[in-house]
Specification:
The chain is mostly helical. It has one domain. 68% of the residues lie in helices and 0% in strands. It is built from 21 helices and no strands. Helix 3 runs antiparallel to helix 9, helix 8 packs parallel to helix 11 and helix 12 packs antiparallel against helix 13. It is globular, with a radius of gyration of 22 Å.
Length: 448
């Protein structure tokens, strides 16, 4: 149902081979029909996902069953037009630029011609790439085989599958080491409608980044912290916030009980140096260099509805009349840096449960404090939250947010529904409050 809905509302690159879909989408009721299919499909998928979670919890073959279900659910989405976001067409356009010998950090999709220019969202068609060299090089390699935009789309869907496969392999193993049920962790991180909607249907780069980071932490908790640090740099070559997982690599590399700040700081510098070397090395190998540094500011050109610092800045600015968004975004970034440093210097080391919990905390903070936040950024922290032995209240929040963000995926299609931002904020707030308030209400009822 979700894939079929995409035929009505998914953004198309208007090539000759999809004229039938273009005609279908031009119908008077096409958008309404597609939206209804997608919403109903996500509801049915969520129901099946919840039932699967009950069945596999504690089961000896639970991980295998979750992987099999994920494969079945993901298959129809692989062939559908992009859903819930148009970003993948930007990835394809940037790959076209690389294939034609131009840097996406210097040129923009407007410098291209043909259907791909029409497919890229008007908001991003004239801006430089904010991503690292790895996905740009991948897009360039795919575009060398064919400049057809649809071929490029399936190339990035393949990259998303690589990220999903890495999570399938690493999440259950890390969860087992951290004292969590591997089947339940895999169910939450891998099979959720949220992961499928944004990672596969939307083909967001955050899924391959999450897969690489899971692999990095898996290597680190097995004593291969150098490999883990290098993999963090590879993940940062997709998106820069991946560098924050270096805090978990540091803790995993130290023996239990190490409190010496000098030893911790030195190891932090070593991990940072290794991660940076692999990141810069990929820039050299791909020929794209460090142009991604200038692109990091690109997303700040648009205010982010889900960014806490942005919304606080807007609220205080409305009350005071001052422009406070940028200062509050800086404060949020500084707080994130301070929290990461505190994690490296003060959190327990050497223990897999402690390492995974610390990594989950840092990556959750990166989503909460980032100046730009989209739905799919929750993929940065979801696998670590799924693997961590969290307090019951935090575990409920993680589950509720995963559930709600999956159901809210169609809201990002703001050209189909009014007041998308209000619905977005309301749904996220409701999920958070429900996770905190409902258990208290249930406890109060039992005491009566």
């Amino acid at each position: 149902m979700v894939a079929c809905g995409g035929l009505f509302i998914g953004r198309l690159a208007p090539t000759p081979g999809v004229q039938a879909l273009i005609h279908l989408q031009s119908g008077a009721h096409a958008a309404r029909s597609g939206f209804a299919l997608v919403v109903c499909g996500l509801f049915v998928l969520t129901t099946g996902w919840l039932a699967l979670g009950e069945q596999v919890r504690g089961s000896t073959d639970g991980v295998r069953r979750v992987v099999r279900a994920t494969a079945v659910w993901a298959a129809p989405l692989l062939l559908a037009p992009p859903l819930f976001s148009d970003d993948v067409w930007s990835y394809v356009a940037e790959g076209n630029l690389v294939a034609t010998g131009r840097s996406p950090y210097v040129s923009t999709p407007l410098d291209l011609s043909g259907p791909i220019v029409e497919a890229v969202n008007a908001k991003w068609v004239g801006v430089h790439a904010p991503y690292g060299p790895l996905p740009l090089a991948w897009g360039g390699a795919v575009s060398h085989l064919s400049m057809n935009p649809w071929f490029g789309l399936y190339g990035f869907r393949l990259l998303a599958l690589v990220g999903l496969a890495a999570m399938m392999l690493c999440v259950p193993r890390v969860a087992r080491l951290a004292g969590r049920d591997p089947a339940s962790a895999t169910w939450l991180a891998v099979a959720s409608p949220f992961t499928l909607a944004h990672g596969i249907a939307g083909a967001h780069l955050d899924l391959v980044m999450a897969g690489l980071l899971c692999w990095a932490l898996h290597r680190a908790v097995h004593g291969r912290w150098v490999t883990g640090a290098l993999l963090v740099g590879v993940a940062a070559a997709v998106k820069a916030p991946a560098m924050l997982v270096g805090a978990g690599i540091v803790l995993a590399s130290l023996p239990p009980g190490v409190r010496d700040l000098w030893i911790r700081a030195r190891r932090g510098v070593e991990v940072l140096a290794l991660s940076t070397s692999s990141l810069l090395g990929l820039g050299v190998v791909t020929g794209l260099g460090t142009g991604w540094l200038s692109g990091l500011m690109t997303p700040l050109e648009h205010l982010s509805t889900l960014s806490l610092s942005t919304q606080i800045g807007l609220l205080l600015g409305a009350l005071s009349g001052a422009r406070l968004v940028a200062p509050l975004q800086v404060v949020g970034t500084l707080l994130l840096g301070a929290l990461t440093l505190l994690t490296v210097l003060a959190r327990p080391s050497g223990s897999a449960p402690a390492v995974v919990s610390a990594t989950a905390g840092v990556m959750s903070a990166s989503v909460l404090l980032s100046p730009v936040v989209h739905y799919w950024y929750f993929l940065w922290c979801l696998p670590f939250l799924a693997c961590a032995a969290l307090p019951s209240r935090a575990a409920r929040v993680a589950f509720s947010m995963t559930l709600m963000l999956g159901l809210l995926a169609p809201v990002d299609l703001s050209h189909h529904i009014p007041d998308a931002s209000t619905i977005m904020l309301g749904g996220v707030s409701a999920a958070f409050l429900a996770a905190l308030v409902l258990p208290l209400a249930e406890r109060s009822r039992r005491h009566r």
